[in-house]
């Protein structure tokens, strides 16, 4: 079975230029927006340090927005290509947690920062991975399927992985982490999917606004996280940035390599690259803040900015090669 070539779905009709421009604007503006939010949090941390308690609710807004975009067709796509989706799921939850542990160990990070880097690796796929896959002329259907499944299984996978890999640095309450992911990820996503099913025609009217709502919410999350660890950033920012760049870059490369090794075609392998290398850093920041400390959330805050910048750049390069 492992040697079979996965047959791609029939190619979708080319997206209209307006949709392409909208996607490019979103993927360009989003990292700038997050970067600006981080700068504000760093410059005036005292104004936002009391906002930490709102982090789980803000993440719930992002996850509910994701749920609103899901349709029965997305779940049908998973059933049509179980091998490819399973490969993406395994690659995601093996490569990124393993890289997080290796990088934290190799760089000799402090326990708080090491746990934060590992927690980023244990998170599900990033919410922007589907847009970046589209811009890279990748297999968007596979990207959506892997992102959806990795998010739905996160309550069962992320806590034990964090306990196994980050537990050597800090105490990890896997049970409490499971409950938090259930409340802030699974329940909002399922709730959004139910609302889309019941009131689809009303949801369709606001679909174009959902990416911007998510972008603004994630920017506020980064603002809160950065303001909570502003003092630490000046001492550790360079080292954490190096860890984030290595984590994301190796994840993108190994994700693509895993697809090619499994004999997926190039569009599907591009989807694998982004589904492995781009993380739900908002969830990682929320969990780090709740279970460790604001300092442990610093890697997730930097990852939130960097993986969108690198994802957009790699997508542009892949798109040119695809032509």
TrEMBL record:
InterPro entries: BilAc:Na_symport/Acr3, Bilac:Na_transpt, Na+/solute_symporter_sf. Keywords: Membrane, Transmembrane, Transmembrane helix. The chain crosses the membrane at residues 25-48, 54-71, 83-107, 113-135, 142-165, 185-203, 210-230, 236-259. It comes from the Bacteria. It is a multi-pass membrane protein. It is found in: Membrane. Signal peptide: none annotated. PANTHER family: P3 PROTEIN-RELATED, SODIUM-BILE ACID COTRANSPORTER. This is Bile acid:sodium symporter family protein. It comes from Streptomyces stramineus. The lineage of its organism: Bacteria, Bacillati, Actinomycetota, Actinomycetes, Kitasatosporales.
């Amino acid at each position: 079975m492992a040697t079979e070539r996965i047959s791609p779905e029939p190619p979708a009709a080319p997206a209209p230029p307006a949709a392409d421009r909208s996607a490019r604007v979103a993927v360009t503006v989003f990292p700038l927006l997050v970067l600006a939010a981080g700068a504000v949090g760093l410059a005036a941390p005292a104004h936002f340090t009391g906002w930490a308690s709102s982090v789980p609710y803000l993440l719930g807004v992002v996850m509910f927005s994701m749920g609103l975009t899901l349709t029965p067709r997305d779940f049908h796509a998973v059933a049509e290509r179980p091998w490819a989706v399973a490969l993406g799921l395994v690659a995601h939850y093996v490569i990124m947690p393993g890289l997080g542990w290796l990088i934290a160990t190799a760089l000799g990070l402090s326990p708080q920062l090491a746990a934060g880097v590992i927690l980023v690796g244990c998170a599900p796929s990033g919410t922007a991975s589907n847009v970046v896959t589209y811009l890279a002329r990748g297999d968007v259907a596979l990207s959506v399927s892997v992102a959806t499944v990795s998010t739905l299984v996160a309550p069962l996978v992320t806590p034990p992985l964090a306990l196994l890999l980050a537990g050597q640095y800090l105490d990890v309450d896997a049970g409490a982490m499971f409950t938090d992911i259930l409340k802030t990820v699974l329940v909002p996503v399922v709730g959004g999917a139910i609302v889309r099913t019941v009131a689809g025609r009303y949801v369709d009217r606001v679909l174009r606004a959902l990416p911007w709502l998510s972008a603004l919410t994630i920017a506020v999350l980064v603002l809160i996280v950065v303001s909570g660890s502003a003092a630490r950033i000046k001492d550790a920012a360079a080292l954490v940035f190096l860890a984030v760049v290595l984590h994301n870059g190796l994840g993108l490369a190994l994700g693509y390599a895993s697809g090619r090794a499994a004999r997926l075609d190039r569009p599907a392998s591009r989807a694998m690259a982004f589904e492995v290398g781009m993380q739900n850093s908002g969830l990682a920041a929320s969990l780090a803040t709740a279970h460790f400390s604001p300092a442990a959330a610093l890697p997730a805050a930097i990852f939130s900015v960097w993986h969108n910048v690198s994802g957009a750049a790699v997508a542009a390069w892949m798109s040119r090669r695809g032509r």
